[in-house]
Write a structure and sequence with these properties.
The chain is mainly α. 81% of the residues lie in helices and 0% in strands. It has nine helices and no strands.
Length: 211
């Protein structure tokens, strides 16, 4: 796979699982009575938290695996199943409970706290996002350049998510909840295919180890 194709693949995967467009209805509901300045602060905080969590796990996740004795191929299979679950929920037009539970959605202590929970995590930086970035970043076939492409894809996705959420009011009026769900379902289909790819690649890796 060429570097450019790899970068595009990673960007599409991370953008699909992070799903900022699908997060718009939740953002609008949680910040309904907020001023524009308050909503902007919430969005900044959510992107900062999501970015910090995802990038941290990209770099240290593999060392956690080493301590726990987890093989990357095993994680690819488990991660692929998780992504398929998230994708299936997206295709059904609902937020996956692997990303956010109803209790987390209601647990908003202060106006800016929603930027941390539930928007920052687990809605944006949920298990699916963390899993996807960790797998791509730590592929054994990756060169240093490929790792930088993964990091760049994550950063560009976070920037795109910030822009989308920043103009969420305008987008929500244009798209409505139905439009957001349609786009989420399209991304869910892409994510399902990526999840299957992770599973098949992980199974092949396990088979090579056994042989």
């Amino acid at each position: 796979m060429s570097s450019i194709l790899f970068f595009v693949t990673v960007f599409v995967a991370v953008f699909s699982v992070l799903n900022p467009i699908g997060a718009i209805p939740t953002l609008m509901a949680l910040t309904e009575n907020y001023t524009p300045a308050e909503r902007k602060r919430v969005i900044k905080r959510s992107i900062t938290i999501a970015g910090g969590v995802v990038i941290a796990f990209m770099f240290i996740g593999i060392y956690i695996f080493s301590v726990l004795g987890i093989n990357l191929s095993d994680f690819e299979v488990a991660g692929g199943i998780l992504l398929f679950k998230v994708a299936f929920d997206m295709l059904q037009g609902k937020t996956s409970n692997t990303k956010m539970t109803s209790a987390e959605e209601q647990d908003t202590i202060s106006r800016e706290a929603v930027g941390v929970v539930p928007l920052g995590m687990p809605l944006l930086a949920g298990p699916g996002t963390i899993t996807t970035t960790m797998i791509y970043f730590n592929l054994t076939s990756n060169s240093l350049g490929d790792k930088m492409f993964v990091l760049l894809a994550v950063i560009l996705t976070l920037i795109a998510a910030f822009v989308i959420l920043r103009f969420s009011t305008i987008l929500f009026k244009r798209l409505g909840k139905t439009g957001s769900l349609v786009i989420s379902r399209i991304m869910g289909l892409l994510l399902a295919a990526i999840g299957i790819g992770f599973i098949s690649h992980g199974i092949f890796g396990i088979y090579q180890q056994l042989v």
